[in-house]
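Thread amino acids onto this structure.
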């Protein structure tokens, strides 16, 4: 096999001496006989003419005698560890080779690797125990993760009544929240009345505050007012403008019909101008900005909506302040 470049026979059950016939292969640069049962005096083998070898590994065998004479000018790796070599270490090996491993032999000035053998023994005993314990811990963690996963899914898919969040929204919960927040639309939560309904302030359990415009009970039974209510819903769900109060939702129920609006904390412009102190706070620049906001909202409804929308009741009572 004159073209052979690498000969790897490690971790087998080869016995007997090392046969140096591989030195006749001109392209062979790597020989690995490690972890076998090779024996004999390697110094009797003539390995000095192996000019082509760069890698020689004879570790973990039963070789003895002196370190053999080697032509190591081209060696990049030489391992003769874990054998029974005796004598001294040739100085050329330490100065000319890139990597040399002569550990765990009986060389002069070198102790046998009893500590290493103990270390290997400890690894053989305790390593399986460590791996087994780690495997049990991993199984336990996977079990706990699998056990808690349904709870997490249940947490994430829990229904809520937040009208600002569509994901997992439940209208029944929202309805109960508004009824509870206004105490069944008690008069003390009423902040204003309109042409066909009253407006209530509702602070929900999540801390958010909304304005709820409830259709009066008498009006709710009238087909005309009921149609007006539905018309208002149809119009408002299509309006998106910063100067028009935002509609978050609506409820059509056999007991209550109401709309859920953005809550405007300062009330109406009418209330602000009717109070002497508040009227002073609404200075000229604020009034100009209010007029601009109303003009922009009307222009949007007249020119940007299809079909155009006419409010028909522009008054200071219907202009709300944030």
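Threaded sequence (322 positions):
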């Amino acid at each position: 096999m004159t073209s052979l470049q690498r000969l790897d026979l490690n971790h087998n059950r080869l016995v007997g001496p090392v046969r140096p016939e591989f030195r006749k292969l001109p392209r062979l640069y790597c020989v690995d006989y490690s972890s076998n049962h090779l024996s004999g005096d390697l110094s009797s083998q003539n390995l000095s003419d192996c000019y082509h070898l760069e890698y020689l590994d004879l570790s973990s065998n039963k070789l003895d005698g002196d370190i053999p004479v080697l032509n190591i000018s081209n060696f990049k790796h030489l391992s003769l560890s874990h054998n029974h070599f005796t004598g001294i270490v040739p100085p050329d090996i330490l100065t000319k080779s890139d990597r040399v491993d002569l550990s765990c032999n009986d060389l002069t000035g070198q102790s046998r690797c009893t500590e290493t053998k103990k270390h290997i023994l400890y690894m053989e005993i305790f390593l399986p125990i460590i791996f087994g314990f780690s495997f049990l811990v991993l199984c336990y963690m996977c079990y706990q993760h699998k056990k808690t996963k349904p709870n997490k899914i249940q947490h994430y898919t829990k229904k809520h009544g937040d009208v600002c969040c569509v994901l997992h929204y439940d209208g029944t919960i929202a309805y109960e929240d508004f009824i509870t927040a206004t105490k069944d639309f008690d008069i003390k939560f009423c902040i204003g009345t309109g042409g066909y309904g009253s407006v209530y302030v509702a602070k929900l359990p999540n801390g958010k505050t909304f304005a709820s415009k409830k259709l009066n009970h008498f009006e709710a039974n009238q087909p005309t007012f009921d149609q007006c209510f539905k018309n208002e819903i149809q119009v408002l769900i299509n309006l998106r403008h910063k100067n028009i109060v935002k509609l978050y939702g609506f409820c059509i129920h056999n007991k209550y019909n109401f709309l859920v609006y953005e809550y405007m904390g300062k009330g109406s412009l009418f209330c602000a101008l009717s109070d002497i102190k508040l009227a002073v706070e609404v200075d000229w620049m604020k009034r100009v900005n209010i007029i601009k906001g109303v003009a922009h909202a009307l222009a949007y409804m007249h020119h940007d909506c299809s079909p155009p929308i006419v409010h028909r009741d522009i008054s200071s009572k219907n202009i709300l302040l944030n």
